[in-house]
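Internal tracking record. Fields below are filled automatically when a chain is submitted to the structure queue. Please do not edit lines marked as system-generated. If the sequence contains nonstandard residues, flag them in the REMARKS field before resubmitting.
Queue: standard
Priority: normal
Entity type: single polypeptide chain
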Amino acid sequence: MPKNRNTFSSLAAHRRRATSGVVHAAWRWVQRQGAVTPERPGRLRFRAIGRGTRLAFPQGTVFGEPWIELGDHCVVAEQVTLTAGLMPDLDLGPDPILTLGNGVVLGRGSHIIADTTVTVGDDCYFGPYVYVTSTNHSYDDPEQPVGKQWPRMEPVHIGPGCWIGTNAVVLPGSRLGRNVVVAAGSIVRGEVPDHCVVAGTPARVVRRWDAEQGWQPPLRTPAPVPIPENMTPEALMALAELPESPGSA
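SYSTEM-GENERATED OUTPUT FOLLOWS
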């Protein structure tokens, strides 16, 4: 009897492993087939979608695509929301409303809500769950529910080369300069100059670049050593496999 029980247990475990493998393989197939690319846009008809750009499956809420332009080589992770206009099926005029530059990366679960113009510059990287909006609720009338009052809208501009950390919020009217770092969880509003780091709620400048003195206050860690231009992937793998020299720890 114990022997039979062990046999049945082994068979059940084998079936579970086989079923799990089939489910994971099927899901990978669905992800590949459901991804949106210039060659395979599916139901989405963007105003422009650049070469090499890919929206992972499953996508988040997407509407107003005729007023959304995506540049070349953008990476849009799963469950990212991209909307133009207050609701679907509106005529928003001749110009784009939401524009992503080339090489933009949007982390999983991020939202860009463009009821009026939102522009994201080239090579911007968003961590997961970043929220960018050009619209905010108004509460002028104390007698009306806030959600029923007409919202306020202001354009948003995020300059090229910015890094927006996880769970950051960029509010209407924000204008971020070039190569700005927004710390995770920050709430950004207003003007942010080039080459600085902002953090907090509301976000404020905590570090900035000075042409003569460098970063002020100074960085606490040394700059990473860049990979030489002639370094191949095989050479990098070989370096990774080298044993550590004595005393390196």
